[in-house]
Design goal:
With about 250 residues, the protein is α/β, with parallel strands linked by helices. The chain has one domain: P-loop containing nucleotide triphosphate hydrolases (Rossmann fold, 3-Layer(aba) Sandwich). It has 8 helices and 12 strands. The protein binds adenosine-5'-triphosphate and magnesium ion.
Length: about 250
């Protein structure tokens, strides 16, 4: 996908090179019936950033992510991924969006009757990729998440942390530009959670933009990334290297 106007010519001799934008919310309001889940939300995330989105339960974190992967549409306003307004994307273009965006869930959403390899390969089968290419890609993704030795195990024989690694491998197997994760460590113990966040950081360092909604205060405090804090559907702070406590309350 091409990106929004990276270069803006202000006059003959003044040229502004803008940061490349990966995510842009413009005056986004989301109503669920009478309930205002997001209230005129505007923010931007640049290519290559790793950003936490925090806030109390019901603040609207998952709603932000659902609008990004188009499980929901905004009531008003626009949601851009690169320069594509995903809220207006025709259904026929959705597979393209999904190829550019990996999604990681709290409950992993693995198919229980499939091995790690098969779970990760699933989106590649779905687009009709050649068998040899699938093998290469899946083994590459297993290597990134450190699970080469668990390729043939079923989810029930994996720990929670390992299951989430499979979930992450499935999310990155198509080489997405953007990875979004909703409470990826919500079901994991603190040590395992830290490992998962370090894995997400490594994926970010390989060039993928990463957006994580989380309640995991110790990890957010430790990682010193940009923190967006939501409350009642509004952005209450946006700090470059923030901590959970100072931003979320
Ligand atoms: N499908 C839905 N129908 C009706 N209301 C909804 C729906 N999804 C979310 N809401 C409401 O919208 C608000 C924002 O919900 P959201 O799930 O985005 O919050 P959250 O910040 O992710 O919370 P949590 O930390 O508990 O996951 C909440 O008041 C929630 O009850
Ligand atoms: Mg949520």
């Amino acid at each position: 996908m091409p990106l929004i106007k990276p270069i803006q010519v202000l006059s003959d001799n003044i040229i502004v090179i803008e940061k490349l934008i990966m995510i842009q919310f413009l005056n986004v309001t989301k109503m669920y019936g009478e309930l205002k889940a997001l209230d005129n939300l505007t923010f931007q995330i640049n290519l290559g950033e790793m950003v936490f989105i925090v806030g109390p339960s019901g603040a609207g974190k998952s709603t932000v992510l659902r609008l990004l992967y188009r499980e929901e549409k905004p009531t008003s306003g626009q949601v851009f991924v690169s320069n594509v307004d995903v809220s207006r994307l025709p259904n026929s273009q959705m597979p393209l969006l999904r190829r550019r965006m990996g999604v990681v869930f709290q409950d992993f959403k693995l198919l229980q009757n499939k091995t790690s390899f098969e779970n990760i390969a699933y989106p590649l089968f779905a687009i009709g990729m050649d068998q040899n290419e699938i093998k290469k890609r899946v083994h590459g993704a297993l290597k990134v998440v450190g699970l080469t030795n668990k390729a043939n195990d079923f989810p029930k024989n994996l720990s929670g942390g390992e299951q989430q690694r499979v979930g992450i491998a499935r999310a990155i197997v198509q080489g997405p530009a953007l990875l979004v994760a909703d409470e990826p460590t919500g079901n994991l113990d603190p040590a395992t959670s830290m490992e998962i966040f370090q894995l997400l950081e490594r994926i970010n360092q390989r060039g993928t933009t990463v957006l994580v909604a989380t309640h995991n205060q110790p990890v957010v405090d430790q990682m010193r990334k940009r923190v967006l804090a939501l409350n009642s559907g509004r952005m209450v702070s946006d700090v470059k290297t923030g901590t959970y406590i100072s931003q979320a309350n």
